[in-house]
Design a protein that fits this description.
Layout (H helix, E strand, L loop, with lengths): L1 H11 L7 H17 L9 H18 L7 H19 L4 H14 L2 H8 L4
Helix pairs in contact: 1-2, 1-3, 2-3, 2-4, 3-4, 3-6, 4-5
């Protein structure tokens, strides 16, 4: 649960301009990752939790893609994945940031994201 708390704190520090409904959906996805893990360890970093939460939102959007309500989880998926890359890049040491970005790219390439989210390829 520590990973979710750290991730929610990270989000809250950067979400002043995020619409309330979007932020709530993003936070719910982070909480879902913390509760059910979704491949993320308890000691995972913020970037990993955000990326896993993005995949959950994308899965939800793909399941309901024919309805207008799919827009919010799709926007949340986009915002969460963008935030994951921001978090990965946000470390002080450039070499460590580059390594974290490469790892995130390897773990969440477009084909893996599509497969994890259940999007037909």
């Amino acid at each position: 649960m520590y990973a979710a708390a750290a991730t929610r704190k990270w989000l809250s520090e950067r979400s002043a301009d995020v619409p309330e409904s979007l932020l709530a959906r993003m936070e719910r996805a982070v909480d879902d990752v913390a509760l059910d893990h979704h491949g993320v360890q308890d000691d995972a970093g913020v970037a990993d939790v955000l990326a896993a939460a993005a995949v959950l939102c994308l899965r939800e959007a793909a399941a309901d893609c024919d309805v207008r309500d799919a827009a919010l989880p799709l926007l949340a998926a986009d915002a969460l994945m963008t935030a994951a890359f921001e978090a990965a890049a946000g470390v002080d040491d450039p070499a460590t940031a580059l390594q974290a970005l490469r790892a995130l790219c390897d773990e969440y390439d477009v084909h893996r994201i599509a497969a994890q989210a259940g999007v037909p390829g």
